[in-house]
Design brief:
Length: 220
């Protein structure tokens, strides 16, 4: 379904969100106070406008309330990011996603009304670190402070050629398998208990991050 997005700030993060949304067939209004940035995205975004979002009149004239999502991708200028989030909330924007530079910034953004706060540098750093430490965890997505979805590759004979029932990951590690990716096959979504896991299969598991790490340790 086509949705409408307004992105304020076309730095590296905002620009990459803009490009990905357009590639996914969505409608994007791109806003930046820097004319050169806006010119760069004129032909990429659905619409691109030069505006200083900190200026309340300018922000009001954008009609942000009419968008399904507003993304505040102002990075360096933390004060501007907080003020624009606050004003967007006061204008009645339904879904605000804001980019935080650090933990304190994130807390303030949540307080002033961001529905979702993202920390791209921190999150990517954590993902890369996990991938570097473990040869089994190919990727992982943090759902909250405690829970994650991880892609774990079965690299150990002890785990291979056994059904999910026999592996019993729920009892042993507190993890649920939501899908299996097998070479040259379609993704097996919600695998049945009698599905036999093969060497080099990738399991998508959901559970507490500490339990994912425990399973990874046991497999190493
Ligand atoms: P990143 O780390 O994602 O590259 P930057 O801080 O470098 O983020 O970029 C943020 C962008 O937001 C810049 O293009 C900047 O011009 C824009 N920006 C900053 N403040 C405002 C504002 N008040 N109104 C509109 N755009 C802004």
């Amino acid at each position: 379904m086509k949705q409408s997005f307004a992105i304020i700030g076309l730095g590296r993060f905002g620009a990459s969100v803009c490009t990905a949304l357009i590639e996914a067939g969505q409608e994007v209004l791109a806003i930046d106070r820097d004319e050169d940035r806006v010119n760069e995205y004129m032909d990429i975004a659905t619409h691109a406008i030069v505006a200083n979002a900190q200026d309340e009149m300018a922000l009001r004239s954008l009609g942000l309330r009419n968008f399904d999502h507003v993304i505040i991708a102002i990075g360096e200028d933390i004060q501007a990011s907080i003020l624009v989030t606050l004003m967007a909330k006061e204008m009645g924007v339904t879904r605000i996603t804001a980019k935080a530079q650090n933990t304190y910034h994130a807390k303030v953004l949540e307080k002033v009304g961001a529905d979702r706060v993202v920390h791209p540098e921190r999150d990517m750093g954590e993902r890369v670190a996990h991938q570097l430490i473990s040869k089994n965890i190919l990727d992982y997505l943090e759902l909250s402070d405690e829970y994650s979805i991880a892609e774990i590759q079965i690299s150990n004979d002890k785990f291979a050629d056994k059904s999910l029932l026999q592996l019993n990951l729920r009892q042993k590690f507190g993890l649920n398998v939501i899908a299996i990716r097998r070479k040259n096959q379609r993704l097996i979504v919600s695998p049945p208990a009698d599905e036999v896991v093969l060497l080099n299969d990738v399991l998508f598991v959901i559970g507490e991050t500490k339990d994912v790490e425990h399973m990874d340790d046991v497999m190493n």
